[in-house]
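Journal club prep — side note

Before the paper discussion, L.F. wants everyone to see what a predicted structure for a comparable chain looks like in token form. Sequence:
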Amino acid sequence: MNLSILLPGLLPRTYEDQGLDTQSGRFGVIESLIAKSKFEEIAVKGYDSTLCSLFGIISDTQHDLPLGAITRYALTGEKDGENWLCADPVHLHADVNQLYLTGSRSMNITMPEARALVDMCNSHFKDQGWHIEVYDPQHWHIALPRTESLKTFPLRELLGQPINAFLPTGEHGVSWHAVMNELQMLFHRADVNRQRKARAEQVINSLWLYGAGELPDVEHTPIGTVITDVWAEELVARGLCRLADNVLHSLPRNLDAVIEHGYADDTKEATTQLVCLEELQQLAANDDFPQWQAVMADLQESWFAPLLQALRAGDLDEARLYDCAGRCFSLHRRQLWYFWRRPKSLRSVAGN
């Protein structure tokens, strides 16, 4: 059995003054696994791009990954051939010089709130040739005219970063800048936000637009992937599994359930399990290093110590770790004997 793990946030943007070269900031099992691995730079970066690439879906610099269509398909199961765009509700906030956002996962948005704002938007923009749909309070979708040409940036890629350089570009990018500005003014006077403000909750003051495109036509061009099972909790993974007829499992507390499942098939055919561990990403983006270290310690105990044991026992033939920043670390069980490869701190690995 083979195992692939997506772990965005493994190597945060900066380790300066965080004490990660001290003993308290070291993670011996993970560092040992990485030290013995074969390191490979890959062309794709970002969680969404890395995950889609494992299913054979890759975009170029001029086009989006069709994340809008994929996530809508995850929620509805509908294949309609339309051009869809993610329109996730966000909270924009400014410091002295830059504008940042908080994503919907941190905002506790209810479905009645989402529907009220969507109805208001669709009424206001009814003559624009597009409309918003909502099937999940955290993830909204816009049906685009087929003539729209956009290049956008997935929400996950800009967490903790100034957003000015990530606004939509392309032939129709500027017109969507105007829409985003108009949305801010529209949301400012919404009853939903007055009520949220009264409860000391972050207001929903804009939408983040990304992932324009149609659902891949898998009937004529089947998805190419060796993955047999996916263990994840988020919509892109769910949509890709639906497209590829893969099995999607809820993420377990540790690796044991994945190993057991991989060998439960009576045919004894080799399986490739994909696990998506997202907990570190938001923490790394926010430079929340105390909580990042706590989650890393839990991941080491729940996932990577069992991974090492599974390799030693022969339950795993190979493990591949993707940091979603253009790095892949692949480790075959025979490489465990590479005793001359000494563990290095994650800080030194990030600097390579």
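L.F.'s comment for the group: The mean pLDDT is 89. Keep this in mind when we get to the figures.
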